[in-house]
Amino acid sequence: MPLPSLTDLRATARVVSLPLHTRFRGIDVREAMLLEGPEGWTEFSPFTEYDDVESAAWLTAAIEYGWQPTPPGVRDAIPVNATVPAVAAASVPEVLARFDGCRTAKVKVAEAGQVLAEDVARVRAVREAMGPEGRIRIDANGGWNLDEAEHAVHALAEFDLEYVEQPCATVAELAELRARIRYLDIPIAADESVRKADDPIAVARAGAADLLVIKAQPLGGVRRALSVVADAGLPAVVSSALDTSVGLAMGVALAASLPDLDYDCGLGTASLLAADVTDAPLRPQGGMLPTGRVGVDAALLDAHAASAERTRWWLERLDRCHALLSARS
Question: Distance between CA 145 and CA 180 in Å, rounded?
Fold first, then answer.
């Protein structure tokens, strides 16, 4: 795919700053850059702490989605899960109420500054709210060491976990934990070990995970993500990176194109945002999201425009990432 010129990218670039309902992933505001290509609006939104090399993959994904048609889909609606940040147990019902009809909840655990007892109370509150038929998965974002992870899984096993996402940081730790808890029949999912790895297939090759969590932007686009899943030979869950509804539509396109989709996807996170870039946010209805691109509302782009300083920061980041892609091509 020819690389669009930097002039073309800058011509439509808009940076927004969107407040969250609840602090999530250590932030209260989500910043993102929106770009308009021949195929429609697209999103470039690597988290601010990511370096340029890692962020360049996100720009590749944004360009692919905005400048190329998406691969043909095999489904026209995607089942999604609720996402529960590391909130107090008493706040769980309020969070779940934002995810209409979702039968699955992903619960954040291993939050810095919190203890396992808080995780247990939060997961218990989710189980009580969802009832015995609800599905619960937990996500530690690599926050435990091996022994901590084993202890935590035992403490949380009573809540009938669907799977444990990225309990430890390294592939070796995941492989050892998987061996230790095999008798509990709780699968291990890999996220950071896929999207932040030089070799995203290494975790599958090492037998360190039962399924993969894949995200379109960090992996460099829908087509690259599909290739990773095919090469890994493991079931996949498509998730988001706290995108706007434009970025979520990219993830929905990925989920729609997968040959098999055995798990509810983590693409309902627009419900965590207190504002969005469209007047029809891509929030779950009956636990589902429709396929299709999302347009933006000019008034919302203006209302939630980032400050001049932050816009300049994002434009400079765009320049650097574009230079990296140009050098590679």
Answer: 13
**Residue-range domains of the chain with CATH:** 6-70+298-328 (3.30.390.10), 77-290 (3.20.20.120)
What is the mean predicted confidence (pLDDT) over 193-221? 95
Mean predicted confidence (pLDDT) in 308-329: 97
Single out the catalytic residue among 14, 30, 98, 108: 108
Sorted by sequence, the CB contacts under 8 Å of residue 88 that are 6+ apart come out as 118, 121, 122
Taking the C-alpha atoms of residue 311 and residue 13, their distance in angstroms, rounded to an integer, is 9
The single residue of 215, 224, 283, 322 carrying the catalytic annotation is: 215
106 is catalytic: no
Distance CA 283, CA 97 (A): 12
pLDDT of 1 higher than 90 = no
Q: Is 108 a catalytic residue?
A: yes
